[in-house]
Amino acid sequence: MSPLVWILLAVLAAVVVLLIVFRAAVGRAWRAAEVRRAVEDLKRQRERVEAKFFDLASRSGKPKGLRWTGCDWLDEEVVFGREVQSGLLTAFVHVNLRFEAVEGGDMEDVAAVGTVRDAAAVFHYQDGVWSTGGRAVFNMRPADAIERLEGQYDPVEWPTGG
User: Fold this and answer.
1) For every one of its 162 residues, what pLDDT tens digit does the chain have, with 9 covering 90 and above?
2) CB 154 within 8 A of CB 144
3) Is 65 left (phi over 0), alpha (psi -120 to 50) or beta?
């Protein structure tokens, strides 16, 4: 092959490498911007999604034999992850849950029923809207939940800049 062909192949290879690097950088910037938007949207939509969470979770029948009586939202811990299969941004929010036994149920005489429980409330972000299925990961804080669900969620860094 002539030197000109080698030069053209080298230039083509360099262009391909540059395109790959550029695409990766744009993807990282887009994902970081999405997380920043999502954090702000979660603040704006908080009251609605908290109410939706409690409504759905309290109607879930879990834990069995208990009625949900309260949910305290703890601001100090929110952990973000990206669902591996769907790519959805997910927030795990620290909550304290309170229950009472259902009258006539198996839990009525259990002393621990009134114990406040740590949990991570799960929310998903799609098309600028936070939503929930009312899922709570019981007896763990958000960082513990995302670690325990490794393989289902990849951790996402909390945005630090504007």
Assistant:
1) 788 888 888 888 887 777 777 676 666 666 678 778 888 898 899 899 999 999 999 999 888 889 999 999 987 789 999 999 998 999 999 999 999 998 888 888 888 888 899 999 999 999 999 999 999 999 999 999 999 999 999 998 765 444
2) no
3) left
